[in-house]
């Protein structure tokens, strides 16, 4: 993982979300919670608006809004399809 | 995150019949086992809009997937009298007719093995961050959706 | 009695992991299969009255057993959307830790495979005339009782 | 299978019943139904009285009394323990 500054997060994306972001792994400006991050992402990548995904903060998924600590690893997870 | 990293479940490419056979043979020394229940997920050559699936490319959020599988394992061991449990999932390319998921549960009697196997497979499909991209014979692709 | 004799299910001695692995590999050409569910019954080294089971000697009323297995197969194919089904049972000596029963069910989706597998294994144990004699390490023996 | 006369049946025994009869396969005097056969068998082999077994006539088990055709194949089946 890259070192991220205090005002950044480590952003991971998977599946069809990674295709929209055109990367699986990048640094991204810190947002205070997952709702704010989602809004920031949709602002830059409008296609995300209509795509289902949940946001994991340090590998924890919470379907409610959850705070993001600066420097966290945040992952954008479309519906799973393993098996 | 836990201190100790859980054992990987991932295998690059398809899971072979030979691998399954060898896994079974390793259990001959465990003479308290009376029942093995196994699940194998195989890639189907589904046809969608006239296009036939050639293979699936699997990717995963590996660290989180291993945590989730660890949780699934611990829950099943807590609920059922199981002797052992092995879970493997492919990453990368798995062709139609090849195996991408192998779950192997053993117990003294069959009820626990059957019930645990079904629960574990359902939870792997619903709770573990793995994605499959179905690639068609003509090169087009679509993201797999689990039922 | 039917005109056509059903295919035998019997294997002399234990069923090997290699045999199971080869059975799995044979299904790679069946690309409408999405799920394989397998059951393996393994001989336990149970201790009764201080005596440990060394092996089981299996015998069967073979003609009737094949008819019963045929009926079990037909019923399951009628109830569930199965692609294929294979059933093998040992005759003769199977040591502790070795496999004496192998049931292999395949279907497009997993629900049918899981449900059919459990039903078939239960019916094999209750309806098919096969007997196991548990032989202890010291040479004594007792007839096995299914739970 | 041996040829059996019209007044005989072909008798098969399995598991612990075969041990009592000391054979898996023999001819046996015909009896008109399974209840009569069971009585004849217990008369000769009193140990059978306390042993559970069902009787298959030409591979059909009926837990009620059932007729036995002369020349039938009749099998004595203790509780199954396959698997």
List keywords for this structure.
heterotetramer, A: Ubiquitin-like (UB roll), 5-stranded mixed β-sheet, B: 147 residues, alpha+beta, 8-stranded mixed β-sheet, 8 strands
Mean pLDDT of chain A: 94
Under CATH, the homologous superfamily of chain B reads Molybdopterin biosynthesis MoaE subunit
- Average pLDDT over all residues of chain B: 95
Largest sheet of chain B: 8 strands, mixed
Question: Could you say which structural class the secondary elements and strand pairing of chain B correspond to?
Answer: alpha+beta
Q: Which range does the strand content of chain A fall in?
A: 25-35%
CATH C-level name of chain B: Alpha Beta
The largest beta-sheet of chain A arranges its strands as: 2-1-5-3-4
CATH topology label of chain A: Ubiquitin-like (UB roll)
Broad shape of chain A: globular
Q: Low-confidence segments of chain B, ≥5 residues, pLDDT <50?
A: none
Number of helices of chain B: 3
Please state the second-level CATH architecture of chain B: Alpha-Beta Complex
Distance between the termini of chain B: 30 Å
Residues in helix, % of chain A: 10-25%
Q: Which parts of chain A are unreliable, with pLDDT below 50 for 5 consecutive residues or more?
A: none
Per DSSP E runs of 2 or more residues, the count of β-strands of chain A stands at 5
């Amino acid at each position: 993982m890259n070192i991220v500054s205090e005002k950044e997060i480590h952003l991971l994306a998977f599946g069809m979300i990674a295709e929209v972001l055109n990367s699986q792994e990048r640094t991204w400006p810190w947002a205070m919670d997952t709702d704010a991050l989602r809004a920031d992402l949709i602002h830059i990548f409008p296609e995300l608006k209509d795509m289902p995904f949940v946001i994991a903060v340090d590998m924890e998924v919470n379907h409610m809004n959850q705070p993001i600590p600066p420097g966290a690893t945040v992952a954008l997870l479309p519906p799973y399809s393993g098996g | 995150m836990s201190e100790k990293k859980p054992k990987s479940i991932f295998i690059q490419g398809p899971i072979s019949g030979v691998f399954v056979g060898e896994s079974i043979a390793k259990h001959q020394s465990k003479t308290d086992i009376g029942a093995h229940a196994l699940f194998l997920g195989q890639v189907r050559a589904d046809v969608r809009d006239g296009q036939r699936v050639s293979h699936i490319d699997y990717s995963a959020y590996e660290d989180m997937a291993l945590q989730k599988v660890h949780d699934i394992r611990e829950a099943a061991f807590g609920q059922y009298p199981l002797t052992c449990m092995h879970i493997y999932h492919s990453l990368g390319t798995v062709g139609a007719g090849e195996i991408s998921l192998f779950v192997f549960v053993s117990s003294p009697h069959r009820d626990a093995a059957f019930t645990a196997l079904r629960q574990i497979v359902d939870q792997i499909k619903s709770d573990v961050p793995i994605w499959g991209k179905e690639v068609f014979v003509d090169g087009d692709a679509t993201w797999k959706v689990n039922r």
